[in-house]
Each structure stands twice: as C-alpha cells, then as structure tokens.
Amino acid sequence: MAKERISMGINLRQNKNDKSPAYGKYLPEVDVQKTLSLRGFAKHMTDHGSVYGRDLLEGVLIKITECLPELVSQGIPVQLGNLGTFYPTAEVKKNAAVSSIAEMEGLDPNDLVQAIHIRFLPDSSKLDNISGRAFKEACALELRNIVDTQAVTVNGKIRKMQTLTPISTAVAITRSGGSTPSTGGNTGTNPGGSTGGNTGGNGDGDGGDGLQI
Q: Which of 3, 27, 69, 96 is the most exposed place for a label (fewest CB within 10 A)?
C-alpha cells in the first residue's frame, strides 16, 4: 500500500423500496471512479518508484492477463502474492442435477455446466489481510454526495439519469428549510465517475467470499 492514502469517496443513496426495513433511509455505496487502463496501471507503478520502466511493466501485466486465464481454464488456481487467488467455479444449468450414479455413464459435462466463472479471493492471512473489514482499515473514507436517479426526457424518450448532490450542500439546504435532493432539491451531474453498489446489505455483512468476473 502507498504511504499517502488518497480518500475513497462514499456516497449515500436513499432506499426507495417500500418493502425494505430500511425504506427512506440512506445507505452507503462507493463513489467508483473511471477505470484505470492496463497502461495507466503500469504508469502508476512506475510513478511509485519502480526501478522498471512503464514498457517493461506493461509487458509483464499483458503476459499475466494472457497466462492467468489459461491456467484457471485448466482448473489451476493462481495466487498473486499477497493480493489474493484467482480460481474457477462452475455455474450449473437449470434442472441439470444428476439423479443417480447410473446416469453418469457417458455423461457430457457440457450438459451440466452453464458457464465457468473466474473468481477472485482476496488474501486473508494475518500479515496481508486485504479482505472485507480488514481492507477497510487501509482505506481513508470520505463522505461526498447524495445519489439519486431521476427520469428525464431526451428527444422524446424517457431515460434515467444519475445525479449527485454534495452532502454539505444538502445539509445546508435542509437547515435553511429548503427541499432536499430526494424531493426535488438542487442536483448536479457526477464529475468524478459512477457509483458502486452496496455489497454489505444494511451494513452488517462483508459480501461474498469472492468477486465473480
């Protein structure tokens, strides 16, 4: 991890599901920024004091993207140091369960398997724990915006547009007696990327064991 921690933005979105116990409340989600390309990642590594140039690092990363899926496709999990492990899982076709051993004779596994997914399991050892709640300690969280999705008409067609209102602005509007973003207050477009989903339910969970790719 870099010594200087840049903040991870946390946005709040109002739960509009009237069947949810959290209806009307605001839940956190990550303010996900623009995806960094492989070349950009290599440049980032170079800028962080690597003795290797961007071209060499980019070449190594490209080779990883070629070899890792090849090994996983053979059922071989690949562990990338203290980052974590990439491994395969099978998605079963609907109603494809085998009822008895007798039915296994001459069985084609393609008749059972719908898809093969590459999953990522973060390292969770005591020395290099970057999973769930432990990884949160490596992040500098910063509250940023209230997220809302509104229907707008563009060229006669109804489209959904995501709007962001800085939380400080929303608080100031509320204190002054104005309307809040959820009821038609001042909103703006997202200048720094899109927002991510809440993978922890109402705040009690860590999400799943691995990330499906």
A: 3
Phi, psi of 127 (to 5 degrees): -80, -35
Alpha helices in the chain (DSSP H): 38-47, 54-72, 132-136, 167-175
Of all residues in the chain, the percent with pLDDT exceeding 90 is: 59
Q: Could you tell me which of 83, 75, 12, 97 has the C-alpha nearest to residue 41? A: 83
CB distance 83 to 122 below 8 Å = yes
Which candidate, 141, 130, 190, places its Cα nearest to that of 166?
190
pTM for the full predicted model: 0.70
